[in-house]
């Protein structure tokens, strides 16, 4: 079906949005499944005392969020590429739920930063303890990244006593070879100072989802308009090649004008048929009268 410029723009915008959304969904789901079923982290889910820990909650959120994102992408791509209004409506509902959730999480995280900060510290402590027990190189690389980003060293900060000192950043001076900032305090301070930025990230993501929702709603409306708009019928001398096999209500072909251009008619309702029949009758009578005049003039000239 034909879409105008606005409809095509929304269609390709949704396609690009769903492509990026699919990549993020696969990343979240893959990371969550790896943390859930990896040999080094699987045991933590079997300990009842750790079922409510920040690590378990974070992994569960990653798996759930990745799954929901992929479901949203399926409906969005199917509705946009095949121009299906039903799939676009489901896609719009899911986007609305995600946008509200994103904005709500950002506001709650900012308003409850005194509670969220310790949860993040607990998450770091879980990774720290897990690395000491398993020695997983991936977790070690994660700790190294955190230590270098925050310029801290372990849970104590005492380099000579720290069990993961090989993951600590390089000392800037003599004193940092002995003592560096401990990571729990640095994480808590960084979160408290960057809480507005965290809220902005969540709210910004929600705004992007709202933009995609507007595009989805606009595309659905354009599809409905293209389905309900009148279709044009082209009448030519070769009526047998027309798509509609039913005979026309007023079918007349003049042989006097073989080079006549095709005439465009719009579909007619039942209420307009008597009026059109009257018009066709008048045209036919005029044509018949003209033909009789031509015959009379011909015989007058001959005889």
Automatic annotation (TrEMBL):
Subcellular localization, as worded in the UniProt entry: Endomembrane system
Entry membrane topology: Multi-pass membrane protein
SUPFAM superfamilies: Tetraspanin
A GO CC annotation given for this chain: endomembrane system
Transmembrane in keyword set: yes
Record-annotated membrane-spanning stretches: 12-35, 55-75, 87-110, 197-219, 264-285
PANTHER family (alphabetical): TETRASPANIN, TETRASPANIN-1
Name by which UniProt lists this protein: Uncharacterized protein
Organism of provenance: Etheostoma spectabile (orangethroat darter)
